[in-house]
């Protein structure tokens, strides 16, 4: 069992992440962990295809597609349900069936808040 001071230090490091996740829940109360993972995959891999996002996240392509389409803006063709406006899906230049995912300005701000809460030590 870790000493109390080690435990308190660990708790202090996690506190900013907890605050960021609580803020995320306040802004998007029905956002799923699957959607959050897909959002972060797009943040790390701008322009990733839906299929590749699925591979990166360990999801089936259909799961990645649904998650990304739920985070798309309301007026985007193919958007689903929540329409959070965090991810923009753009048609691939060579294949009209392929979609590439990019963060919207709102998605970038959200990811910046989450990234700012995590420090690697």
Report on the structure:
The structure is a single chain. The protein is 55% helix and 10% strand. It has helices spanning 4-27, 33-44, 50-57, 61-70, 105-116; strands at residues 48-49, 87-91, 99-103. The chain is built from 5 helices and 3 strands. The protein has a 3-stranded antiparallel beta sheet. The mean pLDDT is 84. The protein starts with a helix and ends in a 5-residue tail after the last helix. The protein has one domain (4-116): Winged helix-like DNA-binding domain superfamily/Winged helix DNA-binding domain (Arc Repressor Mutant, subunit A), CATH 1.10.10. The protein has 121 residues and is mainly alpha-helical.
Which SSEs are present, and which pair or pack?
Elements: H1 4-27, H2 33-44, E1 48-49, H3 50-57, H4 61-70, E2 87-91, E3 99-103, H5 105-116
Antiparallel strand pairs: 1-3, 2-3
Tally of structural domains: 1
Catalogue the unreliable spans: none
CATH architecture: Orthogonal Bundle
Largest sheet: 3 strands, antiparallel
The separation of the N and C termini measures: 21 Å
Which features would summarize this protein structure in a list?
Arc Repressor Mutant, subunit A, 3-stranded antiparallel β-sheet, elongated, single chain, 10% strand, 55% helix, mainly alpha, 121 residues, 3 strands
